[in-house]
Write a structure and sequence with these properties.
The protein is α+β, with helices and mostly antiparallel strands. Helices cover 19% and strands 36% of the residues. It has a 7-stranded antiparallel β-sheet. Helix 2 packs across helix 3.
Length: 136
C-alpha cells in the first residue's frame, strides 16, 4: 500500500487512503502508516482502534507529513480520545462517507443517516485523529 501511494498509480487508492509520517514520541524514529481519511477543508480526520499504538505519538499536537493524493502536506496531528467527541465526529464522518459504515458495524437508514446508537457503540473502542494542514 505504501508503495502504491508513493507511485504515479496512487490514484487507484488515494481518494480515501493516505500515508502519515511522524516521529516516535520517545525514540524519534520516523514511522509511516497508511490510513483511511476524510478531508474537510484544512482538516483531515482519521479513526483508529484505541488498542493500536501509532496514534499515541500524536497526543498534544505533533507535526506530521501526510501523503494525500500524490502530494506531501505538512500538518499537525492531534488525537481525540473523549468518547463523546469521537462519537460526534464519527457520526459526521459516516454522514459524509456512508460506504464506510460497514467497517464500523453501523447501519445506514433509508435517508442515508447512520444509526446513532451504533455510532456511539463504535466510538467506545476508537479514537479520532484530526490533522490541521499547514498554510502554504
Amino acid at each position: 500500500m505504501k508503495s502504491i501511494l508513493r507511485s504515479p498509480f496512487h490514484g487507484l487508492i488515494s481518494k480515501n487512503v493516505m500515508l502519515i509520517t511522524f516521529a516516535g514520541g520517545k525514540s524519534g524514529k520516523k514511522y509511516t502508516t497508511p490510513v483511511n481519511y476524510v478531508r474537510d477543508g484544512a482538516d483531515i480526520a482519521v479513526f483508529s482502534y484505541r488498542h493500536r499504538m501509532w496514534w499515541r505519538n500524536l497526543r498534544g499536537g505533533v507535526p506530521v507529513t501526510l501523503r494525500v493524493k500524490g502530494q506531501d502536506l505538512k500538518a499537525v496531528g492531534k488525537s481525540i480520545e473523549d468518547k463523546n467527541a469521537v462519537a460526534a465526529s464519527l457520526l459526521d464522518y459516516l454522514q459524509k462517507m456512508p460506504h464506510y459504515a460497514k467497517y464500523f458495524q453501523v447501519t445506514i437508514d433509508p435517508n442515508g443517516q447512520p444509526n446513532p446508537e451504533e455510532v456511539a457503540r463504535a466510538a467506545q473502542n476508537r479514537v479520532m485523529i484530526r490533522f490541521r494542514l499547514a498554510h502554504a
